[in-house]
Specification:
4-stranded antiparallel beta sheet; 0% helix; 171 residues; mainly beta
């Protein structure tokens, strides 16, 4: 499964089937730039985050391959931050926000992709939007576009570590 630019939604390809790549789900045309895709094994959903080049902000998409059901949540962080990164653990989607520039906010939102609601949020206060998120065990790791690294203890919902790794990762 891929999130396809520009305004093409989610596409699917199974090389074992012999069938060509095809559009699996469409989404609002303004939500045109998918930035990250992951698989939610708990809910059996494809999760995609996107930015809107024309309206600002962004969206979070879910797609259930078994039924074809889809949902689009526009501006799940706020009306300014695009949604740049997504990771999942135990059926919760973690959304990482940011602006189109390197500067500014980088909010992390825990989101229930089935109920379509925010569970909690953290402002890492790293001075930049997020580039990537990853989950391992009880920890959510975030990397900012300016090379800041932070670790969130998910059950405690608090940041437990920060580091500057800009010598290795910037932009």
């Amino acid at each position: 499964y891929t999130g396809q630019y520009s305004s093409q939604g989610i596409w699917a390809y199974d090389p074992r089937s012999g069938k060509p790549i095809h559009q699996a789900a469409d989404f609002p045309a303004a939500q045109n730039r998918p930035l990250d895709v992951c698989w939610d094994a708990e809910n059996r959903l494809v999760l995609v985050v996107a930015q809107s080049d024309t309206e600002g902000g962004g969206s979070f998409w879910t797609y259930k391959p078994r039924t074809g059901a889809k949902q689009c949540f526009v501006n799940p962080i706020d009306d300014v931050q695009l949604v740049r990164a997504v990771a999942t653990r135990d059926g919760v989607a973690f959304l990482g926000g940011g602006l189109s520039s390197l500067e500014g906010a980088g909010t992390v939102v825990a989101f229930d992709p089935v109920a379509g609601r925010e569970l909690w949020r953290i402002e890492p206060q790293m001075g930049a939007g997020l580039a990537a998120l990853a989950v391992q065990s009880r920890h959510l790791y975030g990397l900012t576009r300016k090379g800041g690294l932070f670790v969130i203890d998910v059950p405690k919902r608090r940041i437990v570590h920060r580091a500057d790794i800009s010598a290795l990762s910037r932009g």
